[in-house]
């Protein structure tokens, strides 16, 4: 467990993808079965057990520490798991100090004559902690291969639990036994170990690693492609010993028996103005690009006759549990690439509405009724036993259309083709989706997709086959107010920017922050902004610099964004979707930047339009404020 | 005699009216008794300075030869009579030359510990427990969440990262006096024998340590090339992390050795990628181990989270009160503040809030 904890600890601080991969691969290479398999399960979110509630953790710490000191500490740290991990009394298992590396008389000397300094005088708990007695069940686990705590003068062993112990125990443990078991584990771990354990049992393992990334790290053990792992994945279960055996060349490839495995999706490139010249409209079909979540729906029958259906995100995370309403209508055999949308009364809702369904822990009947999930099918990868991915798109679409029709399921429909004769016609359709049949769904359209009729379905982002042509973003001229240093490679650059717009204040016009952006600029532009920030700093707050921003001096950014919504969390009252710096306007005095009213007017207009969810995406606002044509 | 009359907090620092001296004065005074050479404790411009030999040397390195009117060196344990008081210096285990000051008058003993730690440090004399009636303790890490843990584990994090990323420079932010040299000594003890590169601000002090302690192959960053920095340890003041100075290194990893690194939000706020919990101060366990062991009936607390320790003392039946001395702090914070005065475009790492 301590090693897994150390890995989580490093991953939590590591911003770079390559470095994360290297750390995970190193861990998988150097950690034995079944420990590494359970780690893989934890990292890929493949575990299910009843999570511990924060209240339980609070009770445990309250039994062991002074409440005043706990409150002061919690207030300082701000995170319950972390506070408890750090405060947890180490009394039960003293960790001895290593001998002094320098040699010769280092260490505490003197004063035992006063009965005082002993190594690790334990903190006396205010309430006696639970002490294992003869009637207790034996401690779970056999101790860890790597770092069992040295036991000095204690009869009751507090061994470091392994991750395997923890997970297998949690999966079967009764609710009543959880507190004592958890306390016992915490006694056997160090600060980082306790932190990781608490994050794991409370279900808050957020360390910026996707399932796909973890699988990529595992694949690297055997120089395999992550896609190969994906195909095997649904047929495997923790601790994945057959997978590791194959990757290390000790066994044959595990059989992929699962009929609903994930196939890596095909992705598109953004199209540029120059790209059109080389393309013939007749070679392509066009579809709407829907503003939902790209998913893969896979379903089929196992050899044992059991039916399985799963919904995967584009990175291969199994999101079935969040969409039981959709899972139950996946009655086909095969794999469909599509978009997950919320459709109410036959009308596709905006991404904002979809988000309200996503960020919920429990999927209640009410949630399902209010936010009915819908699958808009783009492509058919597998039908029955037949893998269609080598076939041209035109053939796959024809089979998809037939399949969708046979299903006759209102929650699954075919993504419509957009008729167009030439690129100008498509440009018009893209700017005005409702003119060409998108009807009331126009607000949920992000742009158009172009796909070559003869293209096979290739995983990854092959060049020249699929293109996305997004609708132009909204733009606004805003003033840079604060800059913060970035992370990782950008840690010496001020690369995260807070920008504001003008509004009338008590003492004349004032800037109010409306958003933050940390990309959209080139490396060269970053250098320019960084220099500007350093030379025009008026205030420093920790890692943040306030930059001069009055009507005459300051830096204007052209900020591009995808939408607006009202927000009570922001001082300006609005939140921007996907803001980024699209252009530097060193030429423009800040006094000429836009006003908050401009955005408010856009929002007001959008709210006149039904079904927009309050988001600015309607055609009138677009034409008024969209960049370019 | 009441302890409050023997040592009195004043705006210039802790004053002993009887002996006519101040301990670690914040402003220039006639006679200064200095616990250790960190700049929040050892300032230039006093009339006479009494300190250990090492502290005087380190002050000279920092401030130049004329940092005080006169200086007097004192050995650990040596008893000096100063105008009716008896003053002696005892190892504080904080940095090279650091001392606790024991002041006695008419059988009343007060120990001003300065900054201290009671765990092994190969670069300085070990902490000595000095029995006393009143113990003046720092409270830098005076919350139970500060537990510095096992130092070997922290050094192991660094050496493992060096092995895993042999192409990346490991920039380790560390306070220039004490922390940097302790890290080098710990790395050497862990059999890391490759060259360690030093930021310019660390060269002189590290040279002073290296004359007394084997620190292996040390090199200046300005003499190194980009290729040599791959997979190397580069020590720099915390304020240099995230500075444009770092752009000369190949794909650097920002490491930071400090007791503050125990708190994740702090490490993240500073953009640290490899936090190392290494401190020259006592952690909570250390403070609560030493304080009762001194046998003092009264505890005075300075700089840091006094509140929690005052509460803890009260639950142990010890009288405790904060001494509101302004101007001391964590050295890293002070180092950051110092660099803040270096010029408008000088880059500064995050200041730690007081």
UniProtKB/TrEMBL annotation, chain A:
Positions of region (Disordered): 92-148, 606-629
Stretches with biased composition (Pro residues): 125-141
Short name of one Pfam family: DNA_ligase_A_C
Enzyme Commission number(s) from the entry: 6.5.1.1
Keyword Nuclease appears in the UniProt entry: no
GO molecular function: ATP binding; DNA ligase (ATP) activity; metal ion binding
GO terms (BP aspect): cell division; DNA recombination; DNA repair
Keyword Metal-binding: yes
InterPro entries registered for this protein in UniProt: ATP-dep_DNA_ligase (IPR050191), ATP_dep_DNA_lig_pp_1105_fam (IPR026333), DNA_ligase_ATP-dep_C (IPR012309), DNA_ligase_ATP-dep_cent (IPR012310), DNA_ligase_ATP-dep_CS (IPR016059), NA-bd_OB-fold (IPR012340)
UniProt xrefs under SUPFAM superfamilies: DNA ligase/mRNA capping enzyme, catalytic domain, Nucleic acid-binding proteins
PROSITE patterns on file: DNA_LIGASE_A1, DNA_LIGASE_A3
Highest taxon above the source species: Bacteria
Positions of the ATP-dependent DNA ligase family profile domain: 375-503
Biased composition (Basic and acidic residues): 109-123
Catalytic activity: ATP + (deoxyribonucleotide)n-3'-hydroxyl + 5'-phospho-(deoxyribonucleotide)m = (deoxyribonucleotide)n+m + AMP + diphosphate
Keywords: Cell cycle, Cell division, DNA damage, DNA recombination, DNA repair, Ligase, Magnesium, Metal-binding
Name by which UniProt lists this protein: DNA ligase (ATP)
Source organism (scientific name): Rhodoplanes roseus
Automatic annotation (TrEMBL), chain B:
GO molecular function: ligase activity; RNA endonuclease activity
UniProt entry keywords in alphabetical sequence: Ligase
Cited InterPro entries: MBL (IPR050698), RibonucZ/Hydroxyglut_hydro (IPR036866), Xnuc_lig_assoc (IPR026360)
Domain of life per record: Bacteria
Keyword DNA-binding in annotation: no
NCBIfam families referenced in this protein's UniProt entry, alphabetically: Xnuc_lig_assoc (TIGR04122)
The name this protein goes by in its record: DNA ligase-associated DEXH box helicase
């Amino acid at each position: 467990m301590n090693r897994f904890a150390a890995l989580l600890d490093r991953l939590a601080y590591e911003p770079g993808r390559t470095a994360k991969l290297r750390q995970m691969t190193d861990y998988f290479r150097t950690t034995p079965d079944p420990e590494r398999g359970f780690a893989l399960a934890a990292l890929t979110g493949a575990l299910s057990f009843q999570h511990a509630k924060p209240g339980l953790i609070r009770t445990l710490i309250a039994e062991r520490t002074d409440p005043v000191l706990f409150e002061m500490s919690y207030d300082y740290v701000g995170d319950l798991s972390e506070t408890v991990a750090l405060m947890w009394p180490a009394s039960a298992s003293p960790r001895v100090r290593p001998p002094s590396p320098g040699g010769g008389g280092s260490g505490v000397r003197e004063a035992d004559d006063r009965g005082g300094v002993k190594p690790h005088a334990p903190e006396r708990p205010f309430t006696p902690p639970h002490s294992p007695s003869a009637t207790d069940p034996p401690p779970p686990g056999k101790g860890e291969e790597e770092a069992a705590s040295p036991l000095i003068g204690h009869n009751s062993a507090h061994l470091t639990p392994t991750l395997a112990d923890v997970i297998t125990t949690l999966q079967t443990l009764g609710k009543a036994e959880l507190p004592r078991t958890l306390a016992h584990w915490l006694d056997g771990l160090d600060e980082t170990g306790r932190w990781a354990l608490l994050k794991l049992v409370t279900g808050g393992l957020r360390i910026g690693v996707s399932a796909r990334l973890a699988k990529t790290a595992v694949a690297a053990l055997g120089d395999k492609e992550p896609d190969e792992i994906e195909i095997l994945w649904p047929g495997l279960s923790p601790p994945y010993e057959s997978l590791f055996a194959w990757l290390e060349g000790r066994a044959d490839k595990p059989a992929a028996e699962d009929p609903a495995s994930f196939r890596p999706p095909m992705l598109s490139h953004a199209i540029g103005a120059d790209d059109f010249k080389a393309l013939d409209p007749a070679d392509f079909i066009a579809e709407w690009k829907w503003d939902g979540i790209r998913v893969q729906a896979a379903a089929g029958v196992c050899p044992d006759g059991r039916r399985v259906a799963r919904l995967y995100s584009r990175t291969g995370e199994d999101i079935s549990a969040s969409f039981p309403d959709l899972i139950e209508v996946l009655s086909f055999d095969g794999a469909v690439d599509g978009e997950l949308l919320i459709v109410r009364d036959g009308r596709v809702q905006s991404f904002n509405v979809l988000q309200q369904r996503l960020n919920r822990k429990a999927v209640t009947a009410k949630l399902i009724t209010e936010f009915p999930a819908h699958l808009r099918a783009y492509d058919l990868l597998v039908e029955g036993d037949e893998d269609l991915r080598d076939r041209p798109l035109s053939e796959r679409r024809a089979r998809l259309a037939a399949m969708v029709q046979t299903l006759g399921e209102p929650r699954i429909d075919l993504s419509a083709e957009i008729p167009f004769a030439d690129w100008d016609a498509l440009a018009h359709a893209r700017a005005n989706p409702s003119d060409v049949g998108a009807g009331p769904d126009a607000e949920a359209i992000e742009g158009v997709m172009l796909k070559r009729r003869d293209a096979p379905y290739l995983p990854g982002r092959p060049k020249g086959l699929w293109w996305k042509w997004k609708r132009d973003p909204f733009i606004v001229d805003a003033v840079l107010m604060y800059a913060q240093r970035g992370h990782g490679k950008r840690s010496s650059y001020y690369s995260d920017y807070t920008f504001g717009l003008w509004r009338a204040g008590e003492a004349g016009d004032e800037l109010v922050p409306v958003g933050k952006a940390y990309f959209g600029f080139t490396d060269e532009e970053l250098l320019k902004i960084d220099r500007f920030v350093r030379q025009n700093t008026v205030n420093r707050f920790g890692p943040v610099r306030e930059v001069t921003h009055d009507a005459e001096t300051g830096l204007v950014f052209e900020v591009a964004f995808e939408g607006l919504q009202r927000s009570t969390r922001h001082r300006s009252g609005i939140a921007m979707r996907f803001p980024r710096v699209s252009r530097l306007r060193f030429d423009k005095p800040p006094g000429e930047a836009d006003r908050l009213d401009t955005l408010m007017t856009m929002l007001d207009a959008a709210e006149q339009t039904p079904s927009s969810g309050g988001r600015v995406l309607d055609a009138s606002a677009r034409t008024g404020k969209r960049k370019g044509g | 005699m009441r302890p409050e009359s023997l040592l009195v907090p004043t705006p210039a620092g802790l004053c002993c009216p009887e002996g006519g001296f101040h301990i670690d004065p914040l402003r220039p005074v006639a006679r200064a008794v200095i616990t250790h050479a960190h700049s929040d404790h050892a300032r230039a411009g006093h009339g006479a300075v009494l300190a250990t030999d090492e502290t005087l040397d380190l002050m000279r390195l920092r401030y130049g030869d004329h940092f005080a009117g006169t200086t007097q060196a004192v050995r650990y344990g040596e008893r000096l009579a100063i105008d009716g008081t008896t003053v002696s210096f005892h190892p504080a285990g904080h940095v090279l030359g650091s001392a606790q000051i024991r002041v006695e008058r008419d059988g009343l003993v007060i120990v001003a510990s300065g900054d201290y730690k009671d765990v092994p440090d190969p670069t300085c004399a070990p902490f000595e427990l000095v029995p006393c009636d009143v113990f003046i303790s720092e409270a830098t890490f005076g919350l139970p969440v500060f537990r510095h843990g096992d130092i070997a584990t922290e050094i192991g994090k660094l050496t493992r990262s060096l092995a895993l990323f042999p192409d990346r420079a490991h920039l380790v932010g560390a306070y220039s006096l004490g922390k940097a040299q302790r890290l080098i000594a710990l790395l050497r003890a862990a059999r890391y024998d490759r060259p360690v590169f030093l930021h310019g601000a660390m060269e002189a002090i590290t040279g002073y340590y290296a004359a007394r302690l084997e620190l292996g192959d040390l090199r200046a960053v300005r003499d190194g090339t980009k290729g040599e920095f791959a997979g190397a340890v580069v020590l720099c003041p915390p304020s240099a992390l995230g500075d444009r100075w770092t752009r000369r290194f190949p794909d650097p990893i920002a490491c930071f050795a400090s007791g503050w690194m125990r708190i994740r939000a702090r490490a993240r706020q500073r953009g640290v990628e490899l936090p190392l919990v290494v401190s020259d101060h006592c952690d909570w366990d250390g403070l609560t181990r030493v304080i009762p062991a001194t046998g003092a009936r009264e505890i005075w607390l300075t700089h840091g989270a006094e509140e929690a320790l005052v509460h803890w003392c009260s639950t142990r039946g010890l009288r405790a009160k904060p001494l509101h001395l302004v101007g001391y702090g964590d050295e890293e914070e002070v180092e950051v503040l110092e660099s803040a005065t270096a010029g408008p475009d000088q880059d500064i790492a995050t200041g730690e809030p007081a």
